[in-house]
Amino acid sequence: MQKQTLAELIQNLEREMLRLGYTEGSMKFYRRRWQMLLRFAKERGEAKYSEQLGIAFVEKHFQIFEKDFHRTLSQAETQELRIIRMIGDFQLHHTVLRRYYKHKEILTDSYFIAINERFKQYCVRKSYSPVTTDHYVKQSARFMDYLVSQKVMDCKEIHLRLIHDYLKTLAGYTYKTVEQVICALRAFFRFLLEIEVIQTDFAENMPMVQARKQTRIPSVWTADELKKLIAAIDRGNPKGKRDYAIILLACRLGMRCTDIKHLQMTNFHWEAKKLTFIQSKTRQPLSLPLTPEVGWAVIDYLKYGRPKVDSPFLFVRHMAPFGPFSEDDHLSQLIKRYMELAHLPTLKKRRGMHSLRHTMASRLLEQDTPLSTISDILGHVDPDSTAVYLKVDIEKLRACSLCLDEVGRP
What we know:
The protein is mainly α. It is about 55% helix and about 5% strand. The protein is built from 18 helices and three strands. A three-stranded antiparallel beta sheet has the order 1-2-3, with no helix packed on it. Helix 6 (about 130-150) packs across helix 8, helix 11 runs antiparallel to helix 13 and helix 11 packs across helix 15. The termini are far apart.
């Protein structure tokens, strides 16, 4: 296929952005930048788009130099780079990548909307957790939107090359993100095979991500950082009482964020000093010891902090609309706020609620707790999921090191 001219490329990109529902205000901004780029290319005598042309453009007009691309850019600088990167990505993949999505509704074609709804019902029948179902449905919608951008209007036309081309659009995302997308698409293709829309088992033929879970090092807190984080919580106000209880459940009991949000009073067995619940991720029951520190924090919130709202869930929002946290809320904003109050660097590492769970597991490992016991506490089904914490116990890793003088000795 002959390479498009820059003008043709921009024309096709504009058509696709309009299909995706970009607002007229956004389109005016893009069109101004495109006209500037077209004039710049004409001055240089270039009719085709290239990465070098885009870099030269932002260097001349916005003083954003290639050597600075990897530093923290301002919002305005990021937007200018976004424009040339979007053109380059569209030239390569013939679609607007999901990293540029502005719209909420991904699918607009009635056929694909119906397929997506049936897939959601399939996930529910399979007893996937609400979080997993939501993730799978969104990823399938993004893939079907990619089909539309490639002029494929029926799932029967899906082929392996098309799937591989879609996966190429994920270049630049983390291993974990790509792994999660592939997992969702496998479920989607199994569904299409089950309802006989496709005849090929694409789930079995999809490429594997060339990385291992064990290459990841969990983000953990030092004892001093965790102490400062907890000390920054104002336990004298209702919201502080709630946040204190939530953070203790994560860092003392190792609970997942979703399980904390789903806690109800029936999960607490005060006389037995136990907290029992069905894990949202594995659907397996888990019983944890209800320590005095955690128990009293929950009681304090119930008696003096929780708004009087009609909700079965223990933890609720403290601003309108009052009620339970949404499924998409991972409470990362809660952690970030207390990190700022505690003057802890917020850009050092990703520090979400899950990092508190990692920290608890790492502390248990430091205390020589067997991995099997840690696995039981965390509710892991696969022991390999627990083994990843071996990498954060620096002292034990140091003890395993070899002196260079001893290497090669008989």
